[in-house]
Amino acid sequence: MATNTQIDVVMPQMGVSVSEGTITKWLKQEGEPIAADESLLEISTDKVDTEVPSPGEGVVAKILVQEGETVEVGTVLAVIAPEGADVEAPSQDGEMPPAPATQEAADEAMASASEGVGDVSQASEPSTPPPAPSPAAAGENGKTFLSPVVARIASEHGVDVSQIQGTGTGGRVTKKDILAFVESRTATPAAAPAETPQEPEPQAAAAPPPVAPPPPAPAPLPPQAAPLPQPQAVAGEPAPGEAVEPMNAMRKGIAEHMRRSLDTSAHVTSAIEVDMSRVVAIREKLKPEYESAYGVNPTYLAFVARATVETLRDYPWINGEIRGDKIVTRNFVNLGFAVELADGKGLIVPVVKNTEGLNLLGMARAVTEIAARAREKKLMPDDVQGGTFTITNPGGYGTFHGTPVISQPQAGILGTYAVVKRPWVVQDELGKDVIAVRPIMNLTLTYDHRLVDGALAGRFLRDLREKLQSWGESDY
Amino acid sequence: MAVREAEPVGSLSEVREAGLDREDLLGIYRNLLVTRAIEERGHILYKQGKIPGSFYTGRGNEASAVGVATAMGPNDVGTPLHRDMGVHVTRGVEPWRIFAQYMGREDGPTHGRDGNVHMADARLGMIAMVSHLPAMLPVAVGCALAFRIRQEKRVAVGWFGEGASARGDAHEAMNLAGVRQLPVVFICDNNQWAYSTPTHLGYAVEHLADRAAAYGFEGVVVDGTDVLAVYRETKNAIEKAREGGGPTLIESQTLRMEGHAVHDDAFYVPKELFEEWAKRDPIERYRTWLRENAELTDEEEDEIAGRVKKLLNDALARAEESPQPDPATLLEGVYATPEDLDTPHHK
Amino acid sequence: MAELTYLQAISDGLRSEMRRDDRVFVIGEDVGVYGGAFKVTLGFQEEFGSWRVIDSPLAETAIVGACTGAAMMGMRPVAEMQFADFVSCAWDHLVTVAAKQRFRAGTPVPIVVRLPSGGGFSGGPFHSQNPESSFAHIPGLKCVCPATPEDAKGLLISAIEDPNPVLFFEHKHLYRRIKGEVPEGRYTVPFGKARTHREGEDVSVITWGAMVYTADEAAKKLEAEGVSVEIVDLRTVMPWDREAVLASARKTSKVLVLHEDTRTGGFGAEIAATVAEEAFEDLDGPVKRIAAPDTPVPFSPVLEKAFIPQVDDVVAGLRELAAY
């Protein structure tokens, strides 16, 4: 048949397992005319040597593969065109021209990833799995879908799955979600009710602007503690005037942890008063600069945190842990910050990792960012585990003293309180005692007396105070 | 090669030429008696409810079976079928084991895992049959192939019925044997009825032995009630195969003297046929020949009969003591282990 | 070590066993003079002679049945079915005689039946099948499905050594397309022991034969999307490595079974049922199967592509399961 368009001559497949062939001889040269079915070239394969008849009539417009070359089945070897036609470069995508006598099979090698031929593969509906039914998202209308492994882990660890935000289809709690949750429960929220880091009266106690962008879509709730295994008292009928409400999982978790912490550690609290004048002054200077350049508010908490981390370097046991009959100390400080949630009815302690590497700015940023994420319920499981020391700020509402509960398995927790202007005895330039008005902040260290003795605690507080009271302009 | 119809056996001297002395002849007689006695006793046991499943015997085929088996050499192998109890008896299987097999007991050759005569003692050169006939023909040909590859002077004997000849396995087996001239002898037990199917509905040639020509070897038709004729023809065929002369197809003609199995009363077989062939009962025929040609005496007869009777009584008693197989062992032995290959065959 | 194609590895294993053991012989159509339809036995008849490399008539029952008889007489026959599809002609013999002989008569039947199987080259309905599941279902038979050249040689030697009837499924598509390092000398690969083709954490693919490579391509794509796919190559379908499959199921909690054979009653169903039964409390998602649809293998390349599980099909299945 005469060609109106060009025709590709391809390497045929001479047998089912043959994947390539070698051109041994071209029987026609470029420019020579050729008739349909006339022998055009000779090839050699694993199975057999043979001649390849031309798939059409015309002129051998272009020879693309030379004698002696070995190519894969389906490769275009030459192009046949009508006399006088312009030749376009043929496509080498394995398409098959009209078949001559040789057997052709598209070699869509399963060993290779190329899937060029249309969307036929999608037509094989029975061979692709049907779409999985979407289970109800965790938490929606109270119904959740638990896969067998999730149910098993939940039962083994006493987990209330409804409190976990799932990352699976439809919000399903996956095996990964629950495993992460279980792991993070070793560092559950501790301490007394804490609040967002507050400033003393001159400052507004506003939520710092979020610094870090929220993490991508599925947002896990902060992991909660296990519910109590048994209720402490039987719930009978309420007496007149009594109202009964259930404890939510977070409350139960807090209750369980507090009790356990007090049962575990030998809680002792020491307190010290700190003259924050220098910090106040430096902060006034830095605040506008930080806010405009970095969008960060350098809070008092940031200063205290920075000073605490420095001091902990010299007091590794206060940053340490009792494991069995061993004492574990670290060369890093993962600092937990107690954050108030839900109008004072909830609490979580996100952890900033490796604070020993943060300067004042870094600390301010980290604290701001993590507190924001905590309040927006965007914490990841990793954010609430691994703490080595905790700072809590019960003084946001004006209290000047407290005895927080240690966050297990840590050895200590620092409490910061309201910065209050007080009359203070200071020395004048002649060394005489005079009264000045100073911004004074109380600090408490609640420590586990199994590991930390009073003297050590006292020294720690003394050194911490020293750092805060002598904060230099160039100390960042 | 036209099909040859074998002559009946004549005198004792002719038999001697065929290699049998008087003691052999009496041995043949005993084997025939034992075969029939086992099967008759089996019928009784079955009707007593002691044999589970169904029950097949080869009444009327005793001479064909015993004759062929007597012609086999000690190292030859065979794949006898359900009408060929005489082969097992002649090759030396003990009757008590056969009864144990019938009753599905632990001491049967298959330990209760297969029934009736689906059994064989590999040490005696036999291979157990299956129900799909003639599935064992290719297997017999395979044995012959092994002998040929190893150039051993051994022969395989494969049995099939005239009904089973219709299936492809028969054709494939005989074709391969003929193409490669393998040392195998094919025995077609033509008892004229394949269950209720008469021969004219089973094949279209006059003799099944005619088909041998199609496979390139010789076919012989023999009167299956004449144990010595069967012996002679088989012996010739086996020795021919042994010496490299290739296969032979021996068609042994009998009548199945009972139903297909115990549950079948063979109403479809004309009464006249039964009556005619009853007169040619193979055991009676041979006994007569012995009396006429080998001077079989009453004493000898009685003595042989007595020993057979005792043998079977003892066998039955012993078989009845054999325990039922233990269900806990059901899962064992599905797969062979290397230890299973530790036999003379496999070295 | 040498780098051999899958086909060369099989040839090598067979040839070396024939040299080592006189009892091993080959029988099949066109295996002698022609060297086998796929040239696996090329040169064998010249070396071993025509009574150890036997050109048989076109008679699968006779071929396999003769192997059984010869094996009972102490030989180690290796039959070649020209295409796996033709084994159906010998199905009766395999299932009725070979499979049951050991159980009911105490007689081992040490035969190997080699089966060039699988599609992907427009072989059509009768030259492309993967018939392992019907045989895996019959007690007494073993089914072997190597994916790599190294496994092909070792498993063939094990098959010849095994005292049971072994069906050896050589995937034709892999014959010349897959090359690998193959140890020289004699070695065996045990039956019933899977090979971890790829380690992963998020999803397990249980598969065999040519589909191992399809799974591998899919796994690479999934890795780029942050999903870690484990691929377990069963290597033998009967016996199969339940422990390895269950361990992988417990590890990832998500299982996808992939085979080129058709879906309904394919061996994947047995694997899926076992996982669901024995690893129920470890599952974080349904056990899925990807297989060919329930049709005969079509001839046209376009249709065949819709039939044989493609990389994209596996990618889609894995994505879905991973996201569940």
Task: Write a short abstract of this structure.
Chain A is α+β, with helices and mostly antiparallel strands and about 475 residues long.
Task: Explain this structure.
- The complex is a heterotrimer of chains A (476), B (347) and C (324).
- Chain A has 476 residues and is of the alpha+beta class.
- Chain A is built from 7 helices and 18 strands.
- In chain A, the strands form 5 sheets. A 6-stranded mixed beta sheet of chain A has the order 9-18-17-16-12-15. A 4-stranded antiparallel beta sheet of chain A has the order 1-8-6-3, with no helix packed on it. A 4-stranded antiparallel beta sheet of chain A has the order 5-4-2-7, with no helix packed on it.
- Residues 93-143 and 190-232 of chain A have low confidence and may be disordered.
- Chain B has one domain (4-320): Rossmann fold (3-Layer(aba) Sandwich), CATH 3.40.50.
- In chain B, 43% of the residues lie in helices and 10% in strands.
- Chain B is built from 12 helices and 8 strands.
- Chain C is α/β, with parallel strands linked by helices and 324 residues long.
- Chain C folds into 2 domains: 2-182, Thiamin diphosphate (ThDP)-binding fold, Pyr/PP domains (Rossmann fold, 3-Layer(aba) Sandwich); 195-323, 3-Layer(aba) Sandwich (Rossmann fold), CATH 3.40.50.
- Helix content of chain C is 37%, strand content 20%.
- The interface between B and C is large, with 51 and 44 residues.
CATH topology name of the largest domain in chain A, in short, is Chloramphenicol Acetyltransferase
CATH class of the largest domain in chain C: Alpha Beta
* Rg over CA atoms of chain A: 38 Å
Mean pLDDT of chain C: 96
Number of domains of chain C: 2
What would CATH call the architecture of the largest domain in chain A?
2-Layer Sandwich
In CATH terms, what is the fold-level topology of the largest domain in chain C? Rossmann fold
Write the CATH architecture name of the largest domain in chain C.
Answer: 3-Layer(aba) Sandwich
Largest sheet of chain C: 7 strands, mixed
What is the name of the CATH superfamily of the largest domain in chain A? Chloramphenicol acetyltransferase-like domain
What is the end-to-end distance of chain A? 87 Å
Q: What characteristic shape of chain A results from the CA principal axes?
A: elongated
Oligomeric nature of the chains:
heterotrimer
Number of helices of chain A: 7
State which percent range the strand residues of chain C make up: 15-25%
| Order of helical and strand elements of chain C | EHEHEHEHHEHEHEEEEHEEHEHEHH
Number of strands of chain C: 14
Question: Which range best describes the helical content of chain A: under 10%, 10-25%, 25-40%, 40-55%, 55-70% or over 70%?
Answer: 10-25%
Strand content of chain A: 15-25%
Helix count from the secondary structure assignment of chain C: 12
